[in-house]
Fold these 4 entries.
Entry 1:
Amino acid sequence: MEEMKVNPYDVEGDVDYDRLVKEFGIKKIDEKLLKRIEKIAGEVHPYLRRGIFFAHRDLEKVLDAYEKGEKFFLYTGNGPSGPIHLGHYSIWSFVKWLQDKFNVELWFQFTDDEKFLYKNMTYDEIQDWMKDNMLDVIAMGFDPKKTHFLIDTKHANLMYPEAIKVAKKITFSTIKSAFGFTDSNNIGSIFYTAMQTVPCFLPNVLNNKNEYCLIPMAVDQDPHFRISRDVVEKLGHKKPSIIHAKFISPLTGATGKQSSSNSGKSILMTDDAKTVKKKINKHAFSGGQETVEEHRKKGGNVQTDVSCQWLKYFEHDDKKLADIYDKYSKGELLSGEVKGMLIEKLNAMLGEHQKRRATAEKQIDKFVYKN
Ligand code: TRP
C-alpha cells in the first residue's frame, strides 16, 4: 500500500485520520463539542455530525468568546492554479454556514504568490486562474458586506510589513522539517508560509481590534498553521483556532484527494449535466458486486462505493442518506442506481452554482479588500 503523506504540497496514500490526529497533535471533535455548537448555532451542520469536519485546535476558545458576546472572524483561502472542484465547494459551503450562523466577517486569501512559486506556470496564467476561481468563491453566496478578498501580490503593501515580522521568527530548519524541503527548493517557497500566516491577525491590525480568528480548512494545511500559531503569539496576537476537514475522495476511489490537476476524474464547478453524468458513470468507483445476482445476495459496500461516500457530502437529509446506505448494503439498491441519485443531486446543485457564477464577475470589485 502507498505510504500516507499529508502536507500542503503532497497528499498521497490511504489517509488514516486517527493517525493524523496524533501526529499533528490536533483534537477530534467530540459529542460534547457538537452539543455546544448546536446550542449556540441552533443546529449542527451535517458535515459536523458526519465527521467530515472532524478535528480542531482551540475551537472552544472561539466559542467561549462568542458566548461572551465577542466577535471572531473567519479566515480561509485558495491557491489559484486550476479549476474549482467539489472538494473546494464542500469546504466553502461549510464556511458559508459558519458565516451565516455566527454572522461574522470572512477574510479570503488568494495565494497567487504561492502557486507561482510552486507550480510550473507563468505569473499571467496564475492571474487568469485567480480571476476564474474568484467567480466560484463569489457564487458560493458569501455576504459581500462581510467578505474580503486578500490577494497576496495585490495587497503586498498591507501584507509584506507583517510577513517580514513573521518570517524573522521562523528558521529555515523549521520550514525544512515542516514541509520536507531541501536546499534545492526556491527561496520564495521557503518564505511563503509567512504570507499564509498574515491573515490570521491582519484584520485585527487593520481595524485595531483583538478578535479571535477561526480557520476552516482541509487538514493538509495544518503544517502551515502549526508554525503560525507559535509565531503570532510571539508577535503579541491571539493564536488562531482551526477546524479541520477530511478530503473528499477522488471519483476513482478512496486514496489521496480530489485535485484540480486531475480534472478528468474530479467534478468541476463548471461541468455541465452531461459531463457530470458521463464522469460519474465512467469513473465513480463501485462498492458493488460483480453481477446483479451476486449484489442482490451479498449487498454492496458503502465505505468503498464512491457514490455512497459522496452522498454523505451532498445529501443533507439524514433519513434519506441512512435509507440509501441501508438499501445499498442489503443489495436492494444497485451501484448504478446510487450513481443516478448522486448525478441528480449534483446537477441540481451545480445548476444553481453556475447561475450565480454567471453574474459573479460584476461583483469581484465588491469583494476585493479596499485599502
Ligand atoms: N495554501 C492554500 C492552497 O494551496 C491556500 C490558503 C491560503 C488557505 N490561506 C489559507 C487554505 C487558509 C485554507 C486556509 O489552496
Entry 2:
Amino acid sequence: MAKLKRSFFTSYGLCLAAASTLALAACGGSSSSSSPPPVDNSSSSSSSVSSSSSSEVSSSSEVSSSSSAGPIAVETDVQLYTQASFPIGVAVSAANEPFSIFNNNDGVERQDVITHHFNELTAGNIMKMSYLHPQEDNYTFGDADVLVNFAKSNGMKVHGHALVWHPDYQVPGFMKNYSDDWEAMLTEHVTTIVNYFDDTVVSWDVVNEAISDSPNQGDGWRKSLFYNALPPAAEGDIPEYIKVAFKAARDAKPEGLDLYYNDYDNTANTARLNKTLEIAAALKDEGTIDGVGFQMHIYMDYPSLNNFENAFQQVVDMGLKVKITELDIPVVNPYGSATPPPLPEYGETLMGQQKLRYCQVTQVYLDTVPEAQRGGITVWGLGDNESWLMNQFRNATGADYDDVWPLLFNADLSEKPALLGIAEALAGEPCTSDF
Ligand code: XIL
C-alpha cells in the first residue's frame, strides 16, 4: 500500500492570508466568537516536521511560516471512503440549520468535502421524530427529501436516525399526550417513515438510547414516554415499545434495510453494555435486528481500546453488525474531574495524539469486526466548530469551551491530522502520532 500523501500548514495561518474580511470570518470558525484561535508556538516550526515528505509539501505550507497560531491542516491525496469496504459516513446539517450543507454561504463547499470523503450521510437532526412526523396525521418529508436526493445523486447512501428517541425537543407534540392505542400509533409512525424512503436509505437507528442514564440503578431502563406507554410485558423482558418499533420496521421492509439499536457509552459502561446486549438478544430472537450502533462520543483516553474491542466482540459473537454511528473525539473531557479542566493548547502535539486515537479506534474496529459484520463508521459532524459537543458540555457541566476540536476538519473545512489517522488505519498502516 502506497504511503498516504500528506503535508501540512496552519489552517489559521491560511485564514490570516485570506484577502477579504468575509473569508477571515469564515476561517475563524464560530466566527462571531471574540476569542482568537489558540496559540501553538510549535506549529511555527512546521516546516521542519514536514521535511520528511518535503517533496509533497504543498505551497500552502509557506503560509504557515508567517503565522505562529492555530490548528493545523494536512493536505492528503486520500478519499476516505475509497479505502474502506464498508460505509464511511458523516452527520450533516441540512434544511435551514446552522452549517446546513444547503445554505447559500458555504453549503457547496461543504458538499464538495462530503462527496470527496464519504459515501454515507446521517441527518444530524432533520430525520428525527418531530421533523418527519409533527402531527398525528401529518408527515413532513420535504427537508429529508432534499438530503436523500443529494445523497442519491452523488452515489451515497443514508443511515436513518432515529425512528424512536426520547428527548423532549424531538418527540412529536401529539405523542406527549397520546392516550389511544400506542402500539398501533407507533407501528404506523415507523411503518410510514420506513416505507416512504427508497433504497438510498439503507439502515435505521430504530430505537435510540432506551437505557437509563444510570444503567446501574433499578432495572436500568429509561422511563421515557415510550416506556411508560408500552413497558415490558413481563419481568425480565425488554420494553414492549422496542419490540413494536423493530417489528414494524422489519415488516415494512423485510429485505435490504439494516435495523440498529443505538446507544451511547455502551463500551466502557458494563451495565449499559449488558443492557444493550439484552436488547440485541431479545430482538434477535424475534428476527428484527441487524446490528448494534455504538455512538462513540469518546475522549482521548477514555474508554480504553480494550473496552472497544470487548464490546464489539460481544456483538460480533451474536452474529450482528457493529456500526460506529456518531464518532467524535474532543481533546478535553469535562466529566473526567470534579470541575471541567481548562482547554488544552491545541497544537501539533495534541493534534498528533488525536490522529493516533482516531487511527487506533478504526484499527480496533477493523481487527475485531469481520468484514461482513461491519456496518460502517460515521463521524458526528464535519468542521470542528459545528460540533454539538460545546453546547452539550455547557449544558451538562457549565464548561464554557469555545471549541473542543473533536472532528476531522478544521472550521475552514481543511483536513486535520485526525482524518489522516482514519486513513492510515484503513490503509493498514501502523498508527502513529506523526504527520
Ligand atoms: C444531537 C445533534 O447533533 C444536535 O444538533 C442536537 O441539538 C441534539 O442532538 N446522540 C444522538 C444524536 O443520538 O441524535 C445527538 O445529536 C447527539 C447524541
Entry 3:
Amino acid sequence: MNHTYGPHPRKEDARFIRGQGTFVDDITLPGMLHGAILRSPLAHARITSIDTAAASAHPKVVAVLTGADLAEREMAWMPTLFGDVQAVLATDKVLFQGQEVAFVVATDRYAARDALELIMVDYEPLPPLIDARKALGADAPIVRENLPGGNRIFDWSAGDKSAADAAFAAADVVVECDMLYPRSHPSPLETCGAIASYDATGGKLTVWLTTQAPHAHRLVFAGLTGVPEHKIRVVSPDLGGGFGAKVPVYPGYVCAIAASMAIGRPVKWMEDRSENLMSTTFARDYHMHGEIAATADGKILGLRARVLADHGAFNAVAQPSKYPAGFFHIFTGSYDIAAAYCEVTGVHTNKAPGGVAYSCSFRITEAVYLVERLTDMLARRLCIDPAELRLRNLLQPEQFPYTCPTGWEYDSGDYPRALKLALSIAGYDELRAEQAARRERGEYMGIGISFFTEGVGAGPRAHMDIMGLGMADGADLRVHPSGQVVLSISVQTQGQGHETTFAQIVAHELGLSVEDVEVVHGDTDRTPFGLGTYGSRSTPVSGAAAAVAARRVRERARVVAAAMLEVSSDDLEWLDGAWRVRGDPDSGYGIAEIARAAHSTLELPPGVDGHLDASAVYDPPNLTFPFGAYICVTDVDPSTGVVAVRRFIAVDDCGVRINPMIVEGQVHRGLADGIGIALMQVIAFDSVGNCLGGSFMDYLLPTALECPSPELGETVTPSPHHPIGAKGIGESATVGSPAAVVNSVVDALAPFGVTHADMPLTPANVWLATQGRRVRPDLYEN
Ligand code: MCN
Ligand code: CUN
C-alpha cells in the first residue's frame, strides 16, 4: 500500500504514452461544423466595409459572422478576466495584427479556411503605436479611443517612497540600469480551441474548451450569452500544455458559441500555430528602470523601480484585481532590504493582448529578474563576489515570518542553506578558478547566480479577487462503500499531473492506496466551483482543500469506527492509516472497513448519517512562498556570440514535496523555459506592427541540445499555514532561471566591459554587446 508521499509514477501517463489522451481537437460530434477566423493584416486601421457575399455563397459555407452580426446579439464585445472588455470581432477599428474580424462556419475545416479569402474588407490604415515608450506622448496614436485615460491603463505604486529616497540618499553606492523583459509567448504544443454545442430545446450549452479555468470561463459565457450558469457545461478534457496561455477567454471561443447558438449545430474552432503565436495572450513586455543602493561593504539599503508595462490592445489576462501589476511589488525578492518603492504604468499599444501569462507567478518573473540583475551589477561595482554579496543580504531563517517592505508576509524560508547547497553542488570555488584559468587562454566562461522568492497560491480573499470573486477553491470527496474514493476538484491540470498528486494527498490522509483514489476535474458539471489553475495555485489552494476534505472524512470515520468498536471516539487514535484504540495498536479499522460499515445497517450514534462523504472550500490565509538558488555555467564565444549552457544547478524549496518526481519534472521544464527566454525568444514587431514571431522558425523553442541535464538539489521548509506544508512549484524555475542565464553571460563577457544586455541573448545580440552596442530586441525599425 502506497500512502506516503513519494515519486509515484503519473497515473495519467498510461493514456498519454499510448496516444489515448483526449484533446479538444480529438472530439467530433454528430453534425459538427468548423469555424475559421479572418484576421486583420494591419496593426491599426479603421474598417470601412466588410463584404461577405462571396464567402457566404461558397457551397460548403453555412454562415459568416461579422462584428455587426454579433452586435445584434450583444456579443460583439466580451469581458476579460482582467476587467477590460475585448472585441470578439472588430466592429469599427482593428487594434493589432491578427485581430479577429470575421468568423466563417463551413462543413469542413478546409472550406472554412478557403472561404476566408473570399471576404472583402476595406481598411483605412491608421498610424500604429508599437513602441510602448511612445504611448503617452502628445502625438501618440490613441489605441482605444473610447477609454478616458487614452493609452494609459493605470498608474500604480507600492512601498514607501520617502523611506526609499532616504535610503538612497544615505548610500555609499547606487547602481542603476534600464532593462527590458521582452514580450514572450507561452507556446503550449496544443493550440487553443473550442467545440460549442447548443441544445435549443433544453436550453443547455456545452463547450469543450482548452481552458485552465473552466468555472471562470463558464461564468463569462453565462454573462455573454444569457444562458444561465447552471445550464452551461464547460468540459476541459486533456490539455496539451497551457503555461498561462489558456487562462484568458479568447474571441474564437465566443465565436464558436455564437455560431452554434445561431445555427443550432455544434461548431468547432481550433487555431493554427501562427494564429496562436500572433494573437493569443503574451507575457512580460516590461520596460524597467531599476536602482539599488548599498553601503561600501555591500549591505543593500534600498531598491527602486520604475516600470512601463506594455499590455497590448486589450487587458486579457487575469491578475488579482487590486494588483494591476500583479505581484511585481514583491520585488525586494529574497533580500533584507529595508526600503523599497516601485511605480508601474500600464499602457495600451497596437499589439496582441498582453499581460500576465507564461509561468509568471503574476509578474514575479520580472521582479526577480530586476533585483537579480541589479544585485549582480552591484557585486561587480563593489568587487565583491556575487555569491558572497547575496549571502550578506539574504533574509535569515530567524526573520520568518517576514514582512517585506511592500507588506506581504513571507511564510517560511531558509535562504542561506539553499544558496550554500547550490554553491556546493556547483563546486563554486573550483568554477571560479577554472574561469580565471580559461580567461588567461582567451576563453570566456560565465557563472551566473540567481536567487528567487515567489508568492504563489492566489489567494486570500482578504487581499485579492478576480472578477469580484474571492479565490477559494472547492474539493468534494465521495467515499464508496468499498472504501474507494472519488475526489472532484476545481483546478485543471494541463500536464502537471494532478490525477496523481491529488490522489496522493487523499491517499496519504486516509491511509489508502493511490490507485484507490480517482481524481475528477475539468468538467463544471462534476466539480465544485473554483477559479482554476494558474499562479501555481493548485497545490497551495486546491491541494489544501483536498487535504481538508480528506481530514473531514477521517473525522466522520472516527465516529463510525467508535460505533464499530463499541468505544468512545475519544479513545481512538489515527495510527498507520487506521482508527485504533489507544494503547491497543492491533485493534482498529481502516477507511475501507469503516466505509463499508458506514453504508451498512450498523446502528450509528444520533446525528451521524450513513456515509463518509465530505467537502471543503479552502480560502488560503496567505500565499505560499517557495524559493530557490540557481547557478548557470555558460561558455560564450565572443567572435560568434554563441552561448552554450554548460551546466545548470537548481536548488528548489517548495515545502513538503508530494511527488518529488513530478516536482523535478516541473523544475526541468521551467529551466528549459528560462533558457529559451534568456537566449532565444522574443515576440518582436516591426515599426508598422507586423508581428515577427509568427512561427517556430522565428520564435524558437529550446530543445535538449540547448538545455543541459540539470543538477538538482532540494531543501524542505514547510509552509506553516498550509495543511500539508506544501508550497507551489509549477512556475519556480521559469521565474528563477532567466536571471541566472543572463548573469552568467554578462559574467563571461566582463572582460569586454559588458555590464548588461537585454534578453534574448541571441548570437547577434551577444556579439553586439561585445562591441559595446545595445539593441532593442523587441523592435525592428523598417
Ligand atoms: N507538487 C508537489 N509538491 C509540491 C508542489 C507541487 O508534488 N510541494 C506537484 C503538484 O501536486 C502538481 C505539480 O507539482 O502535480 C505542480 O503543482 P503546483 O505548483 O501547485 O502548480 P499547478 O498545478 O497550479 O500548475 C500551474 C503551474 C503554472 S501556473 C504554469 S504556467 C505551468 C506549470 O504549472 N504550466 C504547465 N507547469 C506546467 N506543466 C506542464 N506540464 N504543463 C503546463 O502547461
Ligand atoms: Cu502566470 S502563467 Mo501560469 O500562472 O498559468
Entry 4:
Amino acid sequence: MVNIILLGPPGAGKGTQAKRLEEARGMVQLSTGDMLKEAIAKGTDLGRQVEGIMARGELVTDAIVIGLIEAKMAQGGDGFIFDGFPRTLKQADALADLMARTGARLDAVIEMQVDDAALVERVSGRYTCGNCAAVYHDKSHPTKAAGVCDACGSTNLKRRPDDNAETLKVRLMEYYKKTSPLIGYYYAKGLLHSVDGLAEVGVVADAIGTLLDKVPEIA
Ligand code: AMP
C-alpha cells in the first residue's frame, strides 16, 4: 500500500482525485479541510474555534491539524491520501515524524499544477452533494437534472461558504506564502511528481494512476 500527498492550490482537484483513488484503489482519504468542516457542522469546541478563520480563507494553526491527522492515522490502515495536509513546512516535518514513529513511509507527493485564472473559474462554480460528497461544477460538470445529485439522488446540493472570489484570494495567498514552499521541500526529498491539473478529470486520474503504479520503482 502506498501513502501519498496531493499538493496544489484550492480548486486544483485534490478532493475529486482523492475520492477516485479511494474508489479505484481502496486508499483512505485524509482531508483536514473535511475534518474541520465536520467539526463546524457538529458544533464542537474545535468547530467554534476554527469557523471564523476558515470563513476568511486563512489557515488554522499547525497544532490543530497535526492533532487531527495524528488521531486519524492512529486508527490504523495504510494507503493514505493526504488531501490538503500538509500545508506548511512545520506540518510537513510533523508528518515525517509521525510516519517515522509508526514505521510508515511517504511514497510520493503529487503536485497538481493549475493556473490562477482557471482556479477562480473552477472554485466559483463548484458545488457538492451534502449527502454523498460528489463534486459538481456549474459549467464543466453540472448535475444531469437540476438540483438532483447524479450519484445518490439527493437534493441536498451545497456550495462551500469559502468558495467565493474574495475568500479565494486569501486562500491563494495562503497557498503561495505557506504551502508552495513544500514543492521544493519534497523535490529535495526526491518525492515530487507533477501532473497537469487542468486536464479533464479522467485524464488527471490516469496520470496519477500511472505514477502510482510505478511507485515501488520511483520511491
Ligand atoms: P480545504 O477543504 O482543504 O480547502 O480546507 C478548507 C479550510 O480548512 C482551509 O481554507 C483552512 O482554513 C483549513 N485547513 C484545512 N487543512 C488545513 C491545514 N492542513 N492547515 C491549516 N488549515 C487548514
